[in-house]
């Protein structure tokens, strides 16, 4: 399955951008696309917050987790917060095991 990533602004008072991958984030190419999307969003909009909606992601590899971590670090360096929403239980577990559980379902994430 090919990874498609939709990006759009959410109707919030601050600039909040949603990144919505659709498909498996299993290959190094898919991970690169996710990393590049963070870079593009940060350069183009300087958002206050990024919401990563994983509702259409059935699985994520170690390279995908690294891409998410790298994107979050890049966002933090630009004073942008990140939250991950709608992750499947198996993905939530992987995020937790890789120290990314702090991103899960933050109260102001949507």
From TrEMBL:
InterPro entries: STAS_dom, STAS_dom_sf. Residues 16-110 form the STAS domain. It comes from the Bacteria. SUPFAM superfamilies: SpoIIaa-like (SSF52091). Gene3D superfamilies: STAS domain (3.30.750.24). This is Anti-anti-sigma factor.
């Amino acid at each position: 399955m090919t990874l498609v990533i939709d990006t759009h602004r959410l109707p919030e008072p601050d600039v909040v951008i949603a990144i919505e991958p659709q498909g498996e984030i299993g290959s190094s190419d898919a991970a690169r696309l996710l990393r590049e999307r963070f870079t593009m969003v940060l350069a183009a909009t300087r958002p206050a917050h990024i919401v990563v909606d994983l509702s259409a992601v059935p699985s994520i590899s170690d390279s995908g987790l690294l891409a998410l971590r790298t994107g979050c670090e890049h966002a933090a360096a630009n004073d942008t917060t990140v939250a991950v929403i709608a992750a499947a239980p198996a993905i939530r577990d992987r995020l937790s095991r890789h120290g990314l559980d702090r991103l899960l379902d933050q109260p102001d994430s949507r």
